[in-house]
Predict the 3D structure of the following.
Amino acid sequence: MRRLLKIVFCACLVLTFHLSPFTSKAQVKVVGDVAVSRMVEKHVELNSKVKTIPGYRVQIASFSGVNSKNSAFDLRDRFNIDYPDVQVYIVFDEPNFKVKVGDFRSRLEAYAFLQQIKEFYKGYIIKDNIFPEPPAVEEYAPDDGDISEEEQ
């Protein structure tokens, strides 16, 4: 019996020392060029400043020549009167002043809006970086099937 206890004790001792490297926490140290890590940090910093996403707009005019700037701003003002809820952008793309409207996430949304304004404004859909709206916050409204506290 004593001999059996010695064998079991020795076996436990051997297993404890043998398995100890597998139970310890491993540490990994990544060694790399400092310039690469600085470039990654700069990339993250620049991307955090960008507030636009790829999307679509409707370009309703492009003016060039004499008084093109005034024409673009006049069109912007007229469009703002007709559609006050839609954002208007004037972009100077030398030598043209382009008037673009809307911030649409999909081509289908832009197409629906173009159909809505095509009687008064000629335009076409373009890809552009847009300013997304913040997501809408939905409030909870009980359904008819919900039981109120008074009914309980």
Observations:
- The first helix runs from residue 2 to 23.
- The longest strand covers residues 53-64.
- The chain has a mean pLDDT of 81.
